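FW: tagging you since you asked about this chain on Friday. Here's the raw sequence from the shared folder, copied in full. Didn't touch anything.
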Amino acid sequence: MLIVGINPAAENVLGISARRARGESFLKLVDDEPELRDTLSRAIQNGNTYANELRLGPNEVDASGRIVDCRVTPIDCDDAVLLVEMHDITRRNQITRENALLIQHGAGRQMIRQLAHEIKNPLGGIRGAAQLLARQLPHAELCEYTDVVISETDRLAALVDTLLGPGGPLNKEPQNVHELIEYVVRIVEAEDSRKLNFVRDYDPGLPLIDLDRDQMVQALLNLIRNAAAALDGQGTITLRSRAVMNFTIGNVRHPVVASLEIEDDGPGIPQELQDTIFYPLVTSRSDGTGLGLPAAQELISRHGGLIEFDSRPGRTVFIVRIPLQSETNANGG
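HL: got it, structure written out here
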């Protein structure tokens, strides 16, 4: 399984020059990926062509890793016995995933609005009836029971309002996103007496962005609180910002988007929840409400953006994508 030669495209995907790659173990360059090792062995033994999808780890060229379509074909050419073709499909997979997240968010939001309408009407009636009953009760101590009814009704109404998210137009003003992130970090640190390690990796060239400050703070607060809760007081949260060129969100291609990442080195999101974490009331924590992520997605969606995520044990990252220009400007420019 030693490399005889690679072309420039393979140099880019594998993060190694042709000169350095010659004579190296191909499996070593792909972290000895078990499925690929099995595919190579079967191709040699059976003389058949095989294809599969492969996730490559980070390298010198791409710090986040890539997803490739890998095709292995037996050949007889000088010293070579296998031809391995790799096509980078990372962006294609990302677009498919982003569209799925947008559909999920739209379905969740419609479901919430329908439920909220059905829930809020009877809640108002229950509260009113409890207030009227309290006035008719002969003893003040009996009002403790009606107070509980009123209090719990108000709590449920507040829960429904949280699900619905903010109404009205955005109050957009130019904002420094790094200042907003630092403001949120101070809140999270004040809430938790345990010491978390925050690492900053900011792009100082990121310009001011037109944002609704309160809504953006709430979205970031939900995400960073989630990361802190996942670490349970021990671990590192990495806060990263970048400008990404020519990025598509939904059906709109934006010249530039801000990419804000909140990464933690906790246990990761359980596999069975990864397809549904942006639906309301989905949570892996016993004390969680399952409202933080859907609310954050709604707030970012109102800015024309999207929250994505990638999670495995030891690394979970939520990525907030926000256009630097409005949709109208992006289409016009």
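FW: The chain has a mean pLDDT of 80.
HL: agreed, and The domain at 8-88 is CATH 3.30.450.20 (Beta-Lactamase).
FW: great, closing this out.
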